[in-house]
């Protein structure tokens, strides 16, 4: 099971909400259905493809334009091709050929102004994509009795099958209700959207198309709605169409526990082991929670700093610079995690031999921490202490002595003379005249 490659995949969403033929009632919910589905499938983290790889054909009545854009989109798919249609399904001719309604379709003669399913099937077949998924959310009238989507389950739907694809339809029978009162989406696609948007607690990490079919079938049967049909070929049923968003609700706490355990492992002296555990944790956080989740950002922070503790401060500084850019964008300059990354960056730059740059960063950070937290906050005192130590290495010993004297005085008053932080500051103050490097 895997998610498709977003850069090698394409999504085509076709929908018709307005019809010029009075015999075909408008379907206002189709517009929101297509729009919301497009938003879900193109979300930066949880979606399948970037927005540029999602073709939306909503209320386009020009059959030639629809055909051209459809063929252009399917030709670009190499990994996954997903085609979804929502609107009126029409049948005509002796073979009860299925037509997908467009705004200018005619109830009595859909052959000349509707998208014939066989043509859609041919376009999909011509695609070089490895996996093809076709989802049809159509309603049928009494004229559809005996059409390929009505009556017998086995055999009829096989007339819609495309080699190497997975075909999923919204109903077995012609009495399907496309939309229910007070619902903002079509009955079938609305429940698909809900599954993709909310996920299933206790479900798998990824939803395959077969997972979605089974869950939709159960949901719609429980609600007394028409039962969906499916037909898969090859390995198409195992392709993932989305991340189970509820999976993160249960995975998140476990990942936070692993993060905390790795941090303690580093504090106990095993920095290399901590760095490896954090590397694995960050990879899972990125996949499950998303690259921009605060837990993922904190994981990256701890991983980078642990690399510095393990003896690779230059590598740590490089990772921290990249993290800082993301935190400034996502969290803002005054967020404590952003401020902590700035301090970790300065520490590792100093350990890598860039003492002057480290002192410059710490001087700016000290001013920000005094403004945000106050002069006597423990984090502010820690920054002042680190600035003094780096200044001592760059010749600014008088300033370093003054800063350390202030740190000692405040810590003695707030923490006591025997607190480890107080003793550490006194030791550094005493050693300013003969500086030694201590982490």
Structural commentary:
This protein has 439 residues and is an alpha/beta fold. The protein is 49% helix and 13% strand. The strands form 2 sheets. Strands 1, 2, 3, 4, 5, 6, 7 and 9 form an 8-stranded mixed beta sheet that branches. Strands 8-10 form a two-stranded antiparallel ribbon. Strand 3 and strand 4 form a beta hairpin. It starts with 9 loop residues before the first strand and ends in a 9-residue tail after the last helix. The relative contact order is 0.07.
Features:
single chain, 8-stranded mixed β-sheet, two-stranded antiparallel ribbon, 14 helices, elongated
Order of helices and strands: EHEHEEEHEEHEHEEHHHHHHHHH
Distance between the termini: 46 Å
The secondary structure category is: alpha/beta
So what's the overall shape? elongated
Instruction: Please provide the count of β strands.
Output: 10
The major beta sheet can be summarized as: 8 strands, mixed
Helix percentage: 40-55%
Average pLDDT works out at 86
Indicate the proportion of strand residues. 5-15%
Radius of gyration, CA atoms, in whole angstroms: 31 Å
Number of helices: 14
Unreliably modeled segments: 140-163, 173-177, 435-439
Brief overview, please?
With 439 residues, the protein is of the alpha/beta class.
SSE blueprint:
Elements (H helix, E strand, L loop, with lengths): L9 E6 L12 H14 L12 E5 L4 H13 L4 E13 L4 E4 L14 E2 H10 L4 E9 L25 E5 L17 H12 L7 E3 H14 L6 E4 L7 E4 L3 H21 L3 H18 L5 H16 L3 H18 L5 H16 L3 H19 L4 H16 L3 H18 L5 H11 L9
């Amino acid at each position: 099971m895997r998610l498709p490659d977003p850069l090698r995949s394409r999504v085509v969403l076709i929908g018709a909400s307005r019809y010029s033929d009075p015999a075909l009632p408008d379907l206002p919910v189709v517009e929101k259905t297509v729009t919301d589905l497009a938003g879900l499938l193109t979300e930066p983290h949880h979606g399948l493809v970037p927005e540029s790889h999602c073709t939306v054909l909503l209320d386009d009545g020009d059959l030639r334009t629809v055909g051209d854009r459809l063929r252009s989109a399917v030709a670009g798919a190499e990994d996954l091709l997903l085609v979804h249609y929502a609107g009126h399904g029409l049948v005509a001719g002796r073979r009860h050929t299925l037509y997908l309604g467009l705004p200018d379709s005619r109830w009595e003669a859909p052959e000349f102004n509707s998208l014939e399913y066989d043509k859609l099937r041919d376009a999909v077949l011509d695609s070089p994509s490895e996996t093809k998924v076709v989802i049809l959310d159509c309603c049928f009238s009494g004229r559809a009795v005996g059409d390929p989507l009505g009556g017998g389950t086995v055999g009829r739907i096989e007339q819609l099958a495309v080699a190497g694809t997975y075909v999923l339809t919204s109903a077995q029978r012609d009495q399907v209700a496309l939309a229910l009162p007070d619902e903002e989406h079509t009955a079938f696609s609305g429940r698909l959207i809900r599954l993709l948007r909310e996920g299933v607690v206790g479900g798998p990490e990824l939803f395959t198309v077969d997972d979605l079919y089974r869950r939709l079938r159960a949901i719609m049967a429980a609600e007394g709605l028409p039962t969906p049909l499916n037909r898969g070929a090859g390995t198409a049923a195992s392709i993932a169409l989305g991340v189970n968003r509820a999976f993160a609700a249960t995975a998140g706490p476990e990942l936070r526990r692993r993060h905390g355990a790795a941090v303690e492992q580093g504090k106990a002296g095993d920095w290399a082991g901590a760095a490896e555990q954090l590397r694995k944790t960050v990879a899972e956080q990125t996949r499950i929670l998303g690259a921009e989740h605060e837990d993922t950002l904190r994981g990256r922070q701890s991983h980078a700093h642990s690399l510095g503790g393990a003896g690779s401060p230059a590598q740590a500084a490089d990772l921290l610079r990249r993290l800082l850019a993301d935190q400034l964008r996502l969290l803002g300059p005054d967020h404590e995690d952003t401020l902590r990354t700035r301090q970790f960056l300065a520490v590792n730059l100093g350990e890598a031999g860039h003492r002057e740059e480290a002192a410059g960063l710490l001087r700016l950070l000290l001013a920000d921490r005094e403004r945000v937290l106050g002069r006597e906050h423990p984090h502010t005192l820690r920054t002042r202490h680190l600035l003094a130590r780096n200044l001592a290495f760059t010749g600014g010993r008088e300033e370093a002595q003054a800063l350390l004297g202030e740190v000692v005085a405040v810590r003695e008053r707030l923490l006591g003379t025997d607190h480890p932080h107080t003793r550490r500051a006194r030791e550094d103050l005493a050693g300013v005249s003969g500086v030694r490097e201590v982490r």
